[in-house]
Amino acid sequence: MTRKPGEMVQGTLEMLILKTLALEPMHGYGVAQRIEQVSQGVFRVNPGSLLPALARMERAEHVKSEWRATENNRRAKYYLLTARGRKALKGETETWDRQTAAIARILEA
Amino acid sequence: MNWLNNIAGGIRALFHRESTESEMDEELRGFLDASVDAKTRAGMSPAAAARAARIEIGSANAVKHHIRSATWESAAENLWRDIRLSVRVLRASPAFTLVAVLSLALGIGANTAIFSLMDVVMLRMLPVQDPARLVLFGDGRAAGSTGSLPNESWRLYSNPFYRQFSRTNEVFSGVAAVDSIEFSTHGSVSGEGREMMHASLVSGNYFSLLGVRPALGRVLGDADDQAPGTGAVAVASYSWWQRRGSDPSLVGKTVHIESTDYTIVGIAAPGFFGTTVGQLPDFFIPLSMEKQISPGWNGLDDKWFQSLYLVARLKPGVTVAQATANTNLLFKQYIRSEYLGTSPSPKDLADVAHAQIELTPASRGVPRLRRQFSLPLTILITIASLVLLIACANLANLLLARGAARQREFAVRMAIGAMRSRVVRQLMTESLVIALAGALLGVAAAWKASHLLLIMASSSPEVAAMDVSPDLRVLGFALLLTILTALLFGVVPALRSTRLDLTGSLKQSRGIAGKSTRISLASGLIVAQIALSLVLLAGASLFLRSLVKLTQVDTGFNRQNVLVFSLDEYAAGLPLDDRLVNLQQQIEQRVEQVPGVAAASFAMFTFNQGEWSDDLTVQGIPRTTENSKDVLYNVVGNGFFSAMSIPLVAGRGFDSHDRIDSPRVAVINETMARLFFPDSSPIGHRFGLGDDPSHSGDIEIVGVARNAKYVALQEKPEAAAYFPYQQRVQYFGNFEVRYAGEAAQIVPAVRRAIAEVNPNVPIGSISSLAEQVDESTASQRLIARLSAFFGLLAAFLVCIGIYGLLSYAVARRTSEIGVRMALGAGRSAVRWLILREIMVLAAVGISLGVPVALAGNRMAANLLYGLSPADPASLLAAVAMVAAIAALAGYLPARRASLVEPTVALRCE
């Protein structure tokens, strides 16, 4: 399989989702939109990977979900960060920072 | 707790599959709507926005599949779905399923049954503490007693040596002794009726050395095993206690064995049957009671009475090599000081130089049964695994054919999005379901069969009582075997039949295919099956021919119409003198008066009951290596030669002139006569037992009897001598009666006659001489029967395989055959076209199988009688059978091919 631009490193998707949900509860499409906007179109998340990731995180109790009405008065499944999820985000961010810093040092050396 | 939640969530999802499903649908729909809204807001037309959003999301089913596979329960669910589908698919083709499951059941069942026997006989560890640190002195290849000077690798030990050795050795934390034979006696508990009992004589430290605890009461201790005749206590085996209803009050009761009362002080731990595999003692009794258990067995103070097995536990840190060195040092010192006088003869010194003790691992106990059964069992499990291999090859072939027939199904499934791995998994599940069904049936059959095998292998009641029902280990073996089998026959067909060119498979229903790889793979499998079945059939015909030869052996006695009663004269309470002889002679005379009885006699041995042997010296004949070999001895009654129908060729038999106080006499056999007196009559010559010339005048030869087999049908003629029991007073046990007419009428009459002479002489088992002869060939018969059965089974499986392959080939080539016939080919030419194919395969299979069969048969050389492992007749018979099977299985499809109507065949296209 060839790597298309916009595909992300394995394992980072959950971290990005956690970060996105840390701001406010959102439904699936909202998360995808937000990641795409903030990354200025570098990352495009399709539902084929987003929804399974959310299902996994829900099972791990990093997020929980509830059905709410959207701004357009439609029913949508909103995802909320749990305390466990917040802790996971903190841990993953720290690991990520350490790794990128290390990689940067290697590349600069 | 995370995984707990995970499991709980998974189970919830499994139960609410409907709502989970609809939630997923709704969420996806929401996603789509939101996406369309966003795109419309960004200025796209509603139609274009909807289209773009749908492309972005892709197949809703694929997304849902991804969501589902994010969780574990989907894997379980898929498996469950695969299993249900497999069962449905298999039910749709019952003939295939039946053949598959039954052939696997036979293969797996046979392997499991034989493995469970191997487990008990060869593999199971003794249920004792740290069995790996136990060693046995010698290899356990002898049982009974020997009075010889230790002059080779030694196996049996005297009590004096045992006591001194356990005091002086520095390498063992303990040495225990157990009598090499188990005693069959009669006894009664608290005055109830008398019953057969098996007793094992053990040293006082036996239980503590092994680390076997009591289930109830206590085990034996050093205090029980002191001066000869003291220590009348017994520890019962757990299984005896269970047979008596596990009654706790049995501890403290007395058991009366022969003429002594033993207090039952405890019950041994469950599953403990002593250290000799195959013995199932009811009671463990201190060695100090040896004489009380068996009066002829009186050698506690006699260094020449060597009858014990010694089992020792290595001290921590001591290696077997160190222990062997120390043990042999002490052994040699002991022999020199105790057995050799101050001026030993050069011959004795030379003999003693060869004496040594080999320490063998005893973690699995004394290998008595192991020796007897390990070769037959190894051969049987080889045969059974070959059958399983054939069944696997056969199944692989059937699956290949099914796979070819189901290619359209697979093509459709893959076209609508199933991954190839998914389809392969489904096919493997089908194989596993077949294998599991076969295994279930097979193990259920093995449960019964292993015990049946045991009974077939040995009709001795103690062996038949062994517990061979499959334990966890055996079940584990069966499960492993099942999974292996499924992989073996399932993987290649699954991979092969899912490797397809989608458009091609969907387009053509049936076409003219080239010689596909499926055919060559299938042919290879058929060749393998033919080769393997040739190996099995060659083995089977070899074993059968050998058995036939064995049953035609001239035994030298007439095995028909002789009953062998096991009597316990000791129970009459008479001492070892002429009072006992009188009783024995009265019983013989009284029984001979029973109508229909021709002759009756006590004897030490009838046939295949063990041996007593020693060398001898004939007066006036110098000893040579040739004539100083051991001679087989027997002690018999006056009527023995007529009861056994062993003709006397010279001199006389024993009669009333031979009394306890008259000159000692013997009858020798022809081989011994030829050995010592090649040119003259042996009558009147004298000999003595052992190598002491001063005793060579002890016994006078009064007769010569024809050769008769002694221990085994296979044995070469060996020198033998018979002594009258009046001059060697002893308790026997064997009482044989030659009769005319119906055994069923003789038995009660003989019982009555014995009871009239002395009501205290109990009669144990009753068998016939013919049965004893049969029993001596039990393992040969078992192997011959089973190998014939498995050989036929293999032949049947090969038949199915060939038939299936050729039927498929004929179906595939119908149009080709039509063309050939349209062009003028005759029906017999068409028939030959098909038959030729299978004949080529058979030829290849046979040429591959013959060298394998020859190599495999060498393994069985020790079990064959009068045949070379490369016996050409057996091999030819097998080759002919395989060729016949191939022709037979090929004929039907070939005939069908020859009946093809050219017009019909061509119109099909």
- Biggest β-sheet of chain A, characterized? 3 strands, antiparallel
Span between termini of chain B? 66 Å
What does the overall shape of chain B look like? elongated
Low-confidence stretches of chain A: 1-6
- Give the oligomer, counting copies of the same chain as homo and different chains as hetero: heterodimer
- Which CATH top level class of chain A fits? Mainly Alpha
Strand content of chain B: 5-15%
**Estimated structural class of chain B:** alpha+beta
Number of distinct beta strands of chain A: 3
State mean pLDDT of chain A (0 to 100 scale).
83
Helix content of chain B: 40-55%
- What topology, given as strand order, has the largest sheet of chain A? 1-3-2
Number of helices of chain A: 4
Strand-residue proportion of chain A: 5-15%
Q: Provide the structure class of chain A.
A: alpha+beta
Question: Biggest interface, and residues per chain?
Answer: A-B, 24 and 27 residues
Number of helices of chain B: 29
Structural Rg of chain A? 15 Å
Q: Evaluate the radius of gyration of chain B.
A: 37 Å
Features:
heterodimer; A: alpha+beta; 4 helices; B: 909 residues; alpha+beta; 4 domains; eight-stranded mixed beta sheet; six-stranded mixed barrel; elongated
Task: Tell me about this structure.
The complex is a heterodimer of chains A (109) and B (909). Chain A is of the alpha+beta class and 109 residues long. Helices cover 57% and strands 15% of the residues of chain A. The longest helix of chain A has 26 residues, at 83-108. Mean pLDDT of chain A is 83; it is low at 1-6. Chain B contains 29 helices and 24 strands. Chain B is elongated and about 130 Å long. In chain B, helix 6 packs antiparallel against helix 13 and helix 19 (517-551) crosses helix 28 (872-898). In chain B, the strands form four sheets. In chain B, strands 15, 16, 17, 18, 19, 20, 21 and 22 form an eight-stranded mixed beta sheet that branches. Chain B has four domains: 2-70, no CATH class; 131-363, no CATH class; 371-551 and 778-907, no CATH class; 569-761, no CATH class. Chain B has 909 residues and is of the alpha+beta class. Chains A and B meet through helix 2, helix 3 and strand 3 of A and helix 1, helix 2 and helix 4 of B.
